[in-house]
Amino acid sequence: MLGWSLIFLVIAIIAGVLGFGGIAGTAAGIAKILFVVFLVIWIISLVLGRR
């Protein structure tokens, strides 16, 4: 998940530099969602792994 999030972040940065605002915004939104999902799964696994 974190890897995909970083890939979409890089795509957003490159698209933003090249002037593709719509693609950059979409890629940044997907990167944010994937990062939040990664954090939730990581916290759940951390809590359940301690038991």
Automatic annotation (TrEMBL):
Q: Which keywords describe this protein according to UniProt?
A: Cell membrane, Membrane, Transmembrane, Transmembrane helix
Any idea what this protein is called?
UPF0391 membrane protein LL252_08020
Q: Looking at the UniProt record for this protein, which Gene Ontology cellular component terms does it annotate, in alphabetical order? A: plasma membrane
Show the stretches that span the lipid bilayer: 29-49
Which InterPro entries does this chain map to?
Answer: DUF1328 (IPR009760)
- What kind of membrane protein is this, topologically? Single-pass membrane protein
Principal place where this protein is found?
membrane
Q: Where in the cell is it found?
A: Cell membrane
Family classification: Belongs to the UPF0391 family.
| Keyword Oxidoreductase in annotation | no
